[in-house]
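Lecture notes, unit on protein representations.

Consider one protein chain, 314 amino acids long.
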Amino acid sequence: MRTLGMSPAERRRRAGTSLPELLVALVLFGLVGAATLRALDRQARFHAGVMAVLEARGQHAAAHEALAVSLRGISATGGDIARLADSAIVFRLQVGSGVVCGLAGGALDLAPDSIAAGQRLGAFATWPQAGDTAWLLDEGPTDAAADDAWAALQVTSATLAAGRCAGSPLVDPVLDAARPAWRLAVSGSPPTTAVTGAPVRLTRVARFALYRGGTGESWLGYAEVQPAAGWITIQPVAGPYLPYNRSAPPASGIALQALDSSGAAVLFPGGAAPVMVSIATRTVTSRTVRMDGLPHGLRADSLHSLIGLRNNTR
């Protein structure tokens, strides 16, 4: 009578894996691997697409921030804007401000930017230079606001040294003696009614414009006027953007427009002074976006903002 179970010889024959079983396992592994690779590829394409879109939006943010910071402190009624075209603006860039502690000999002595008492009396985004305009507040002969005015003085040289404003109540003669401060030599003489302690603001003629770079791409560029060389070479700020559209300027990569208080477009110069500037930027991604559910290709993106201008004159 045969015993239950398999004999030792039968167990040895059954110990290995048959070819059909191996083929089935390989097919299953292949299907799982292919599904995994497809999932990883979709994930990689998704992240690459998101990064391309974020890069484009980062360029929008850079342009709008640069323009907003530079334009918020200017006034169209005070002559701060020399030209506002559909893709460029020429304006007075505010480079710094301070407090006058000395008026003598055709020069403005400014108090140190910070003093030992802890007060901040001045700040400069860039150092003053010849060719800048110093706007000195002249409160006039009376206390009435009607005779207050900003006197424009052309800066001929700017030097930084310690020991300015000796004897001025704005500084401590001992604790502030070593603090550097600016002396601005100016053409002409300050108003006779101007007094120490008056604020002074410095401006420089500058320009933002959409321009075509050496690679053929269009960028938002910045340039300023130097006293000897005139306009310096324009430098890229953000981009690339869509090129200038001659037939439809509002569809260009950078589109600027002057607006009145109701939001209607105004011609400037030549029309009413604007109270805000509209800026629109348009670009496409630098590489093809391949994301599930979206057509493959370059993705267009745009951003629009309004920049309010200072509402008073110089």
